[in-house]
Design brief:
The complex is a heterodimer of chains A (271) and B (401).
Chain A: H1 4-7, H2 10-20, E1 25-31, H3 39-47, E2 53-56, H4 67-78, H5 83-91, E3 100-103, H6 106-112, H7 114-123, E4 128-130, H8 140-149, E5 152-154, E6 156-157, H9 163-172, E7 177-180, H10 194-204, E8 211-214, H11 220-227, E9 232-235, H12 237-244, H13 249-268
Helix pairs in contact in A: 3-13, 4-12, 6-7, 7-8, 11-13
Chain B: E1 25-26, E2 29-30, H1 36-53, H2 56-68, E3 76-78, H3 80-86, E4 89-94, H4 104-117, E5 122-127, H5 131-143, E6 146-152, H6 153-158, H7 160-168, E7 172-176, H8 183-195, E8 201-203, H9 214-236, E9 244-248, H10 253-260, E10 268-274, H11 279-282, E11 284-288, E12 291-295, E13 317-318, H12 320-328, E14 331-336, H13 338-352, H14 358-373, E15 381-386, H15 394-400
Parallel strand pairs in B: 4-15, 5-6, 5-8, 6-7, 9-10, 9-15, 10-14
Antiparallel strand pairs in B: 1-2, 3-4, 11-12, 12-13
Helix pairs in contact in B: 2-4, 4-5, 4-9, 5-7, 9-10, 13-14
Classes of the chains: A alpha/beta (271), B alpha/beta (401).
Chain lengths: 271, 401
């Protein structure tokens, strides 16, 4: 096995350092351009103890998102959000001390061309990238130029992914591995899916790269349970539902603090 | 069937509409840009289809269904009065006479039979005007499967009767309220639903779009149009093949099926798009609904809405194989306006006693224009696929005429 710290990029080094210090990782999501002062949410997330922040670049046809993220994207697009404007907003921010990870659908990457797209991310201070409709067998055209631009593309693994393919995903993923907890779209769920534990267990067998569990994680209890299996959690719809309901940065700081606390408590337990 | 010697001219490599290249590619288009949760399901469909298509038992069972239930083969009708007026020899491949009123049944019976072979008990489908939804509901009823059809709320309002037909056939129709509430949103919603239902459900895509193997598989299920027409033209025409082969293109399934029968002949292939939904003529390279192809987009890369009086052409993109045929120059793609299509529909009704679907009327509108402008030399033999009948459009036409 290659020495991971030699090949890891900045996002992965940051997440590894925190994970190795015993911390449960928290990556909240916000749809870029959702409100006029949307970057204030990023500061609130960092204040609340986020370890990375996922910034969604809204797309007209988000085929893997449930109703909440769809509505958030639509709201942002109606406000005039675009990749260019969102990245300009990010460029104007002071460093938050946590890595930014962009997420979007492949059409927007394709539109600018992977090379120009990744260079623009880099200039805006973004370190990672998630493209849910770019599976590993189509990812070549992005991964090489991303590496050259200093962008770490994280690949998604699903409960339906067979074992040899899972190993390839894990091997080629950068930053972290995004474990999709269930067979479904993004959105809040009443309970953590059974498939979450099985998938993270399968991923762990083939890598020590940080594993973040996403899709359906909405409450402190679910975050605590997820932490028993994965290195951390991605929380999107639970954040965006509150934003769509009018919650401001302070409200979100308070909500994320409850998740932070749950993850920290879980870390204190013997594992 | 092909007893007439054909003039064979070299065709560009890869433009003969055989199987796709590795990875489901048609040149630089196609592929399997599916969320990871659907990749395994796509692979299973691909494997099952390859096996089934190579199995004479499956082919026979499908041919039996197409003959006994769907009314195949459909006739080739010489459009005599219209031909005389236009100065060309126009032949209509009558998919309007297939069961459920359009070519959609060809693909759906194939996929439904495949689904039963795979042990699936439910079909998921998207629909715009409702033609593919009705065909899916029909095939499901015939083979004892359940059907869940996603349809944009706006289309549900416009196509009340098709919604009723689907429900009468036992299908569940789910309104889609996202986005523009039309076909592209129904397609997105069907894909989302499939992610959570891959274990027991088959996603029955209605056109030559979607992740590999769909563009190829749907074209193969539709090639019965082109294969039949090729044999019928061979019997009818001294030259064996027509000079031009014309079909309307939304996603492009009836055109792909028609072209597949003639791609290895010297016939000129023409796809006719709606002015407001011209993915092949005006789209830009993009990725949507699982494949890389040409899509209408704004300057930021957002997919724009298509607008056509023909709901089946109301899709902002085109199947990847059409994009490839365009690049190769093997087929050309032209556009006609709503008004031209309406006039063509009326003209066909009054000269041939056939009320065509507004989609098919687009293909005819180009034939009329091209004959008038000399694009079709006098005496040319033109095969046009009449993809569906116009009953569904009567209320639309009533408001306009």
């Amino acid at each position: 096995m290659t020495n991971p710290t030699m090949t890891a990029g900045a996002v992965e080094r940051h997440l590894r350092a925190r994970r190795d210090a015993g911390r449960g990782l928290l990556m909240p999501y916000v749809t870029g351009g959702i409100t006029p002062g949307w970057t204030d949410y990023l500061r609130a997330f960092a204040d609340a103890g986020a370890d990375a922040i996922e910034v969604g670049l809204p797309f007209s046809d988000p085929t893997l998102d449930g109703v909440t993220i769809q509505q958030a994207g639509q709201t942002a697009l109606v406000r005039g959000a675009s990749t260019r404007r969102i990245l300009a907003d990010l460029s104007g921010m002071a460093d938050l001390g946590v890595p930014l990870v962009a997420s979007t659908y492949y059409n927007l990457v394709q539109h600018d061309g992977p090379e120009a797209f990744c260079a623009a991310l880099r200039r805006a201070g973004v370190g990672g990238l998630i493209v849910p409709d770019l599976p590993v067998h189509e990812a070549d055209e992005l991964t090489d130029v991303a590496a050259a631009a200093g962008i770490e593309p994280a690949l998604l693994a699903s409960p339906a992914t067979p074992q040899p393919r899972l190993a390839e995903i894990v091997f080629r993923s950068r930053g972290f591995v995004y474990a999709v907890s269930l067979m479904g779209t993004t959105g809040e769920r009443a309970a953590l899916a059974v498939s979450a534990a099985q998938l993270t267990e399968r991923i762990r067998r083939v890598t020590d790269r940080p594993v973040l569990l996403g899709f359906g994680i909405s409450t402190p209890d679910q975050a605590r349970e997820a932490r028993r299996h994965a290195d951390g959690v991605v929380v999107g719809a639970a954040v965006m539902r509150r934003v769509l309901d009018g919650a401001g940065p302070d409200d979100l700081r308070a909500f994320l603090a409850t998740l932070r606390k749950a993850l920290d408590q879980e870390c204190d337990r013997p594992r | 069937m092909r007893d007439v010697a054909l003039r064979r001219e070299p065709v560009p490599p890869d433009g003969t509409m055989g199987g796709p290249r590795a990875g489901g590619r048609f040149g630089e288009y196609g592929g399997r840009y599916a969320p990871e949760s659907l990749v395994e399901a796509c692979r299973e469909v691909d494997e099952a289809f390859r096996e089934a298509w190579a199995d004479p038992g499956f082919r026979d069972a499908l041919a039996g269904l197409l003959a006994a239930h769907a009314g195949r083969p459909t006739p080739l009708t010489p459009a005599e009065r219209l031909s005389e007026a236009l100065g060309v020899r126009l032949y209509l491949k009558r998919e309007d006479l297939a069961h459920t009123g359009s070519h959609k049944i060809n693909n759906v019976l194939g996929q439904a039979l495949l689904a039963t072979r795979m042990g699936r008990r439910r079909l998921i489908a998207e629909t715009g005007a409702g033609q593919h939804g009705v065909a899916t509901a029909t095939a499901a009823a015939l083979l004892g499967l359940e059907a869940t059809v996603f349809m944009g709320e706006r289309d549900i309002e416009r196509q009340e009767l098709n919604v009723f037909r689907m429900r009468m056939l036992g299908a569940e129709v789910i309104p889609v309220t996202a986005g523009s509430r039309t076909l592209k949103d129904a397609t997105s919603e069907a894909m989302r639903h499939w992610v959570g239902a891959t274990g027991d459900s088959h996603y029955c895509i209605g056109s030559v779009i979607g992740p590999d193997p769909y563009p190829w598989m749907v074209r193969e299920f539709q090639r019965v149009i082109g294969d039949e027409a090729r044999g019928q033209c061979a019997a009818e025409l001294r030259t064996g093949v027509p000079d031009h082969v014309v079909a309307c293109v939304g996603g492009g399934s009836n055109a792909a099926g028609t072209f597949a029968g003639f791609a290895d002949t010297p016939a000129r292939l023409v796809g006719v798009e709606a002015e407001g939904g011209a993915g092949a003529a005006r789209g830009r390279l993009g990725v949507l609904h699982g494949c890389r192809s040409l899509f209408l987009q704004d300057g930021d890369g957002q997919i724009t809405e298509a607008h056509s009086i023909a709901p089946g052409l109301d899709y902002p993109g085109v199947g990847p194989e059409h994009a490839h045929l365009r690049d190769l120059g093997r087929a050309r793609y032209v556009t006609v306006t709503d008004d031209e299509a309406i006039s063509a529909a009326v003209r066909l009704a009054r000269t041939e006693g056939i009320v065509p679907a507004l989609e098919s009327a687009h293909a005819l509108a180009w034939v009329i224009r091209a004959a008038d402008e000399g694009d079709l030399p006098a005496g040319s033999a033109v095969l046009m696929t009449l993809s569906g009948r116009g009953d569904k459009d009567v209320s639309t036409l009533k408001e306009l005429l």
